[in-house]
Amino acid sequence: MQQHRPVGEPGRPFGVARAHPVDLEGPDPGQVDPAVLSALLDRHGWERRGGAAGRYARWILPGPGARTSLLVPESRAFPDSEELLGEALTALERSGTASAREVLVSLAVPSDEIRWWRDVPAGPTGASTWTAEEQLRSAARRVLLAGALAARGRAGYYGARFRRPAAAALENVLVQSAPGGRRLTAFVPVAGGRELAVRLHQALYAVREAVDYRRATGGMDAFDGAVEAGVSHELTEALVALVRGTEGARIGVAWAPAAGVPEECTDGDAPVEFSPGDLDVLREAGARYRHTEPAVSVRVTGTVVRMRRSGPRGEGTVRLHVIAGAEIPHVRMTLDEEAYRTAGHAHLVGLPIRVHGRLESRGGFRRLTGASGVVPVQVEEAERDRLMKSLQENLDFFEEACAGEEQPPL
What we know:
Elements: H1 21-24, H2 34-43, E1 47-48, E2 56-60, E3 69-73, H3 81-95, H4 98-108, E4 111-118, H5 130-152, H6 163-168, E5 174-177, E6 183-189, H7 190-217, H8 221-226, H9 233-243, E7 249-254, E8 272-274, H10 279-292, E9 296-308, E10 316-324, E11 330-335, H11 337-348, E12 353-360, E13 367-376, H12 381-393, H13 395-401
Parallel strand pairs: 11-13
Antiparallel strand pairs: 1-2, 2-3, 4-6, 4-7, 5-6, 7-8, 9-10, 9-12, 10-11, 12-13
Helix pairs in contact: 2-4, 3-4, 5-7, 5-9, 9-10
């Protein structure tokens, strides 16, 4: 079997570093669909230059000094089809061009492609600054994170909610940046990531329409309805970061040929464009979303990780590591003296507590107000042992928090 070296540059995950199939090996010629390969070549700028009709096509990447030529069979019906596919893949790997690498990534892991373009002033000899490249990458990640948040649920402002699962959704996203810091492509695997791409695609068109409506009529009503399409404070702020300092920016989505076009979307849509003239409206919308997002009634279960009060008696502040009841990692609350003591007892014996209250949007849904009904929650023995071990490793802060009051018995 013909061996292929790893695809190189594109193997850079957007989220937390994790091994990805494309990091390990290139696409297997026996698994490549000729129609998919041809569609990807056409998408990434290769040109078809003849070939035997009905048997194979010749593809060439145009440009000065272009030497790579590929023979791609029309189907797998001919005896030499797999051999031709193997030779084409080898030629792509040896090409070393960004276009060839992008084709190989999409073949190895069927992915929807999300692309960003930024029109930034060029430096000497056409080069861009290091800052411009970092801004593009940072803004692109924020846009993807907003799409991942929308895939978890609709909200005008998420704050700390859904952050962990949304960030986890980016772990297997690969990124390929073009020289110059003006273009970047993210490969979102169809398996596990298509919902993200669909929601982002819909949200981008919704925010474009809402901005146009605001500039034409002066009304912000369209932004209220755009929330259902996935528009949020997080997305508008990400777009501000993308457009700021440029002459304009665009975002486009291209669907994986191997998976087809999602039912909710259409193929061949033009990239969505934003200009510096949109910045004031985007900022206004982001502030509107943040200020109007309502508080949420919740019943949170969590383990006490910090306790503090100014004296040996009275109310105190408690911080919980959230186990259930809210899509946030931690929450702070103020408890009266009795509830504070209940939380302290539960912590000492290694039990989580359950509490009712309202998550306030101010501060990013990190604070619970009107806390009531604080009670310890029984857990399985193994989980209790784990919590007790964690307690013993962090006794110092608790002893300091309880200084001046009698320690409850274990």
